[in-house]
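Hello,

Our lab assistant flagged a job as stuck in the queue for most of the afternoon. It eventually completed. Since we weren't sure the result was trustworthy after the delay, we are filing this so someone can double-check. Below is the sequence as submitted and the structure that was eventually returned. Let us know if re-running is recommended.
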Amino acid sequence: MKKRVVITGVGAVTPVGNDALITWENIKNGVSGIAESTTIDKNRVDVSIVGEVKDFEPANYMDKKEAKRMGRFSQFAVAASKMAMEDAGLKVGENAVAERVGVWIGSGIGGIGTFEEEFQKFLNKGQRRVSPFTIPMLIPDMAAGRVSIELGAKGINNCSVTACASGANSIGDAFRSVQLGVADVIVAGGTEAAITEMTIAGFSNMTALSKNPDPKKASRPFDKNRDGFVLGEGSGILILEELEHARSRGAKIYAEIIGYGATGDAYHITTPAPDAEGAARAMREAIEEAGISHQQIDYINAHGTSTPYNDLYETNAIKTVFKEHAYNLSVSSTKSMTGHLLGGAGALEAVISILAMRDGVMPPTINYETPDEKLDLDYVPNVARQKNLQVVMSNSLGFGGHNATLIFKKI
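-- returned structure --
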């Protein structure tokens, strides 16, 4: 028998707040965290509008010396994980056995900022000036490794690297492990800190980024005038816990994770398969595992990147899967406020989906001004809406043809 898996804690570090509750309050109120970058040299790249994490102090969450030996993406993950564990009321070695607590945190790019900085040192000053911590600061699995060390978690320690689906795949893969009894608790999610000049240059040259000069309107998912995504950073973390383990300690339970779909397009390195066929299969797989009908889904937190292809194909995939129920659903993209956190996106959006269900509030898609005749669903334009949400879905789609869908249910 597969074990039931619930969420008992949430944590986040985002462009709209340095904890999950502030983030959620701002998301509900349509507050944008997108602005001109404070770190990018605008003379070197043609895009400087980003979703930066603001006023983040690593020393509030970890030893100052150790923080300097971590990549920024790892710092975010450590902070969000500690907040999630505190929210869950869990402490390794006290009410959770170290060997039964795992960590599964994905990152699409890892420490690219460290790579850029240390490569410049190597070019300009030679080998001896390169930090001995370069490799541990940049490899994507190190966020999970650092969280494990900081928490004392000795169970499964893993990292799903699937581009923009990394956070969602990490949660889904951790879900599978708890289902199978591999761990009682897994700290799961995603993290990213890739706002660098080289990252922007790469995305911009492939015409993926918005060139809209207005920071507050650059990310406009599902709008006819969308022209690309806005790069964001941050981390989202869930505490996944086996249901009876949670009940035995009297834990509060946000929701149950009941379905996970993961598929590949086998089509193109960056462009989704026509009409997002792979995304549609991921949604169907998740619904089938959940043991529900598609009519029971109340709300979808969409991948919704604000690119011409994604928003069209994801809309078509939703209509393919949900048929007439697609027009009873509400679908929104919170990337309109946070930007696209790449490997951290699916995890943050899972946090948002769970809090949306808790409060009965569907977050808005802000900056929605001009409807696109090809996109005809309810995208919760501009203002949040109250609804009694019992089952919610979150989609994440990544370069390389990675598709991940998570389904959560109120318990």
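-- support follow-up --
The delay was a queue issue, not a problem with the job. The result is valid. The chain has a mean pLDDT of 97. Residues 72-88 form the longest helix (17 residues).
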